[in-house]
Amino acid sequence: MIHIDAERCINCMQCVKVCPFQVLEGGGGKPECIRENLCIQCLHCAAACPREAVSLDDLNGTFQGDFPSFSDNFSDQIEHHLLTRRSYRSFKSDVVDKNIIAHALQTSAWAPSAKNDHPTEWIVVSGKPFIQEIMDHILSYVDETGISPEIASLYKAGHNIVTGTANTLILAAAKTTAINPSVDTALALYNAELVLQANGLGTCWAGYLTRMCNQIPSLRQLINLPEDCQIYNALMVGYPDQEHYLHIPNRKKQPAIHWIETATR
């Protein structure tokens, strides 16, 4: 439950103004939590409070940490980071530091999520032997069913289109009953990916792996995926090897933008 420290509160009502579901009201001159059942625990109220007077149950309302200020050209820097993001499929054999992975996945908690649901659960596969075991299940399935035969043919030719040469895989799982699991997991994974690439790691979205993890019962069992969960997105991760990108590629297809504006009279 949202709690407001009366001794710290200065009755500025910023918490009331930013609450998306009008959980808080200030009719009596002080903010009060009157619709607790509608609270999605987004903590906009805590983020807007100038006196840090808001808490959630026994949790401090705001994240405590020291962060550098944005530089004057931050907008240019983040645009450059977005435009230079590439998909890497060839990786060195070096083991990825677990702390880098953990930090990236922790930052994903601040990605947008439907009604602040944040349903994503992470499965991190580390090590070539286990990844090869995953591939063995996939290759057997392809051989038995004939589904996605290009996986097997390219694999025999020395080209793994499922996991590349990654020694780390990140699987974004969620319960199928979540409010919007496909979008929420994608947003969370994209947040994590941007942090990983900023730390010098290469990544590639693994669509084949995502589908196979859900379709193959033995593979679901191998990664301990509960029956009520599904893998919605996956990422290959590692230190890039023999992939060096010097330029930003052009995009032939530009985004279609349809403006709807109030007609001037």
UniProtKB/TrEMBL annotation:
Classification lineage: Bacteria, Bacillati, Bacillota, Clostridia, Peptostreptococcales
Origin superkingdom: Bacteria
The name this protein goes by in its record: 4Fe-4S dicluster domain-containing protein
Organism: Anoxybacterium hadale
